[in-house]
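Summary of Year 1 activities. Much of the first year was spent building the evaluation harness for sequence design. The harness presents a backbone, in tokenized form, and records the residue chosen at every position. We chose the following record to illustrate the format because it has been used consistently in internal testing since the harness was completed.
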């Protein structure tokens, strides 16, 4: 539908009016901010003048304290207002540039005339503070815009459902207060606008999608009922985008009670954190907390072990297939990810309750003070067979008592007396004072001297025992690595396992070297927590897990326990299950068991927005069920496959393609290699010919330009153009590498180019030969 000249003018006039109002509000806010700032400076300057300082007696002191506290309170209240005003000011600045992006004319059932509802990233009220010039996109009424086209429509409010009719749905692109484009749309939010948004070049930062949120995404964003929201979404279907918009929505919906600190996003790697970090600030919201599961494991276990990270494990599974013990390790990775291990471990814990825990002797100056057997005896002698953590605490108390007895005995040992004699004057004085206070001095100076020595001896022993006591309080007498090891020494073969003994032996050996493999980290931590007591986080209200296909069932069970008061939003794509532990089956099904029946909701996203139709059609041939993925109708050139003669030819051809892509104006170009090893080699070959950056685990940030990156690190991100460095059968031949290959292809927005030396991967057999172009 085309817009008449007059309509356009009228719309621009309205923009002008709103901008005027925003200007006024900004002006008065700025003035307010200025005043508050002046006040703050003033208070700070006069802080000590305004409080009455008087410390002469208790009453006065209290007065002084009160007056100081009052001043401090006034100051912090002012500072809070200042911060709020400044946030508001920033939001208005953004709104001034682009006050809204959508409009619906909605007539409630009972009324004949429609109200015009404009949607932007924040609320703008008119001068009287009565009418909404712009509604926040998260307001209840705004969901109409995302859920319906013209015709009957309804939305939920806290007070109930409001039904009516949409007469018009219009979209705007406004830049610097000028309407750039304007169109009316049907049910789905304008393909035109989406086309425009998606056709753009990518940059190093993820964008907000408020203006074009799709109906099925809106369901995810606004869900308030589910305790567990599970999203299975195709590559590029907007899972991460929806998750971030959902955070913004929750912060708005529960603004009185929920803060950004109470929301945690688990992301795949630190680089990803930087990639998504601008989305929320762009919407005028504070960022939620971001972490990786590895970061958590490190924090909990890093002092005890050298903990392997998931990408090291990945690199091993992708490169070490010819090494001894490879199969056993991969088998172990799968077993240790499963709830079979969880069950076996629970049984083990039941056995441990009766006997078999392993302790460390408490040693002092190289000698055993309390032997292991004694600790064991004490532990299993505790009558109360309640839960482990309580028994541990009781044991610690018994050991502390035992330690006191030892201290008593030790007091008169020669080394103690020697140390006591070496004590300085001050310490002597303290011993003296103590005896006086306790009225233990007699008239006999010889006895008194002995007593003094006794007290000094006690002081010496106590000083030396301090670390022991601390250790006992931290339950360091428990030998957890040995307890974990023992499990693998005793555990009988579980199910279909061809390399059981070898896997167990490997596990035991690694632990003996102070190493904890990634697959062992969560089970180990679980065992530790079950025995010592779970450390939970009761502050967090919402946990988001992105790239959820990478997590094990075991890890989910763990997260659930770690955040007992949180709702969970779990987003992933089973077709991108690239870890060895994650092959096959609907692994999200088990998630519903973490909560009560009816508390879990599943949403499936089939539409893919990232890549052109040509790229999706190519990539979906690589996986089973790929035909269920619906490409968004945006066209580009067909993917290409270039045959290279050898490694040198390969690098030359890749470099030439990179130059072409840069000339065509692509900002972000990724050369994706299978492994870190291959990435390094490719980088060495390319760096002389083109300006490239090598990305590894330790890379924290993400910038525009050309990068060389291992496949598993590129996960979750997107690039204007993707070049797959070497897609030979040798590199991508094992069935377990299929999803890795697919994941790499789906990182491309506009162009996808494959290169190969020798026979190309068999995975391409599933792809229609017409869907890509062969080059030499
Ligand atoms: N409603 C939308 N409007 C505009 N762009 C969208 C929309 N939904 C998704 N996109 C765009 O599609 C691309 C892919 O989105 P996103 O990274 O969130 O997908 P994903 O499902 O997390 O992908 P993957 O599983 O491959 O990591 C991004 O560029 C995003 O901006």
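For this record, the design step produced the sequence shown next.
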């Amino acid at each position: 539908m085309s817009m008449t000249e007059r309509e356009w003018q009228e719309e621009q006039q309205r923009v002008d009016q709103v901008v005027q109002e925003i200007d006024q509000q900004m002006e008065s806010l700025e003035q307010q901010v200025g005043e508050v700032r002046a006040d703050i400076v003033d208070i700070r300057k006069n802080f000590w003048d305004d409080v009455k300082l008087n410390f002469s007696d208790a009453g006065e002191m209290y007065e002084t304290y009160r007056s100081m506290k009052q001043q401090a309170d006034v100051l912090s209240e002012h500072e809070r207002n200042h911060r709020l005003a400044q946030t508001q000011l920033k939001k208005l600045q953004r709104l001034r540039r682009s006050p809204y992006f959508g409009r619906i004319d909605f007539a409630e059932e009972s009324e004949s005339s429609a109200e015009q509802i404009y949607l932007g990233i924040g609320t703008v009220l008119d001068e009287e503070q009565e009418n909404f010039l712009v509604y926040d996109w998260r307001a209840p009424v705004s969901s109409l815009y995302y859920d319906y086209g013209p015709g009957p429509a309804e939305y939920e409010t806290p007070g109930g459902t409001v039904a009516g009719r949409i007469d018009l749905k219009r979209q705007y692109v406004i830049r610097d207060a000028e309407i750039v484009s304007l169109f009316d749309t049907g049910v789905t939010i304008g393909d035109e606008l989406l086309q425009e948004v998606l056709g753009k070049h990518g940059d190093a930062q993820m964008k907000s999608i408020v203006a074009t949120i799709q109906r099925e995404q809106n369901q995810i964003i606004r869900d308030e009922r589910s305790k567990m929201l599970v999203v299975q979404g195709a590559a590029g279907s907007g899972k991460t985008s929806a998750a971030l918009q959902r955070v913004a929505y929750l912060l708005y919906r529960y603004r009185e009670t929920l803060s950004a600190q109470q929301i945690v996003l688990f992301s795949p790697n630190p680089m990803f954190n930087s990639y998504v970090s601008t989305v929320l600030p762009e919407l005028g919201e504070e960022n939620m907390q971001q972490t990786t599961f590895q970061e958590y494991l490190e924090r909990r276990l890093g002092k005890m072990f050298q903990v392997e990270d998931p990408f090291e494990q990945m690199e091993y599974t992708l490169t070490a297939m010819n090494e001894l013990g490879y199969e056993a390790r991969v088998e172990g990775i799968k077993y240790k990810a499963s709830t079979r291990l969880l069950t076996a471990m629970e049984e083990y814990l039941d056995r441990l309750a009766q006997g078999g825990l392993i302790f460390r002797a408490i040693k002092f100056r190289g000698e055993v003070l309390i032997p292991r057997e004694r600790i064991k005896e004490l532990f299993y002698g505790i009558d109360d067979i309640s839960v482990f953590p309580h028994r541990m605490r009781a044991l610690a108390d018994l050991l502390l008592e035992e330690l006191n007895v030892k201290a008593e005995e030790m007091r008169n040992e020669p080394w103690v007396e020697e140390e006591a004699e070496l004590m300085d004057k001050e310490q002597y004085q303290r011993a003296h004072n103590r005896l006086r206070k306790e009225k233990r001095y007699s008239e006999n100076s010889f006895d008194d001297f002995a007593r003094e020595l006794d007290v000094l001896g006690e002081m010496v022993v106590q000083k030396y025992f301090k670390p022991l006591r601390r250790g006992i309080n931290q339950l360091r007498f428990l030998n957890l690595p040995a307890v974990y090891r023992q499990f693998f020494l005793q555990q009988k073969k579980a199910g279909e396992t061809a390399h059981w003994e070898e896997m167990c032996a490997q596990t035991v050996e690694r632990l003996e070297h102070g190493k904890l493999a990634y697959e062992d980290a969560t089970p180990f931590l679980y065992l530790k927590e079950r025995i010592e007591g779970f450390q939970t986080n009761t502050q967090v209200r919402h946990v988001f897990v992105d790239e959820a296909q990478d997590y094990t069932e075991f890890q989910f069970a763990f997260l659930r326990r770690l955040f007992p008061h949180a709702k969970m939003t779990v987003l992933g794509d089973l077709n991108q299950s690239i870890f060895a532990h994650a092959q096959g089956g609907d692994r999200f099904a088990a998630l519903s068991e973490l909560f009560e029946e009816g508390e879990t909701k599943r949403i499936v996203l089939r539409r893919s927005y990232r890549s052109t139709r040509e790229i999706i059609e190519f990539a979906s041939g690589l996986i089973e069920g790929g035909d269920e993925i619906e490409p968004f109708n945006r066209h580009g050139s067909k993917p290409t496959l270039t045959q290279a003669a050898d490694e040198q030819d390969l690098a030359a051809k890749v470099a030439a393609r990179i130059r072409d892509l840069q000339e065509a104006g692509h900002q972000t170009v990724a050369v994706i290699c299978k492994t870190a090893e291959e990435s390094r080699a490719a980088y060495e070959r390319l760096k002389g010919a083109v300006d490239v950056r090598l990305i590894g685990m330790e890379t924290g940030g993400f910038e525009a330009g050309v990068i060389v990156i291992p496949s598993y690190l590129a996960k979750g991100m997107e690039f204007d153009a993707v070049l797959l460095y070497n897609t030979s059968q040798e590199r991508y031949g094992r069935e377990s590498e299929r999803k890795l290959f697919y994941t790499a292809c789906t990182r491309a927005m506009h162009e996808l180019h494959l290169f190969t030396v020798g026979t190309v991967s068999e995975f391409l057999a599933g792809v229609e030969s017409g869907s890509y172009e062969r080059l030499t």
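The two ends are 46 Å apart (CA to CA). Quantitative recovery figures across the full test set are reported in Table 2.
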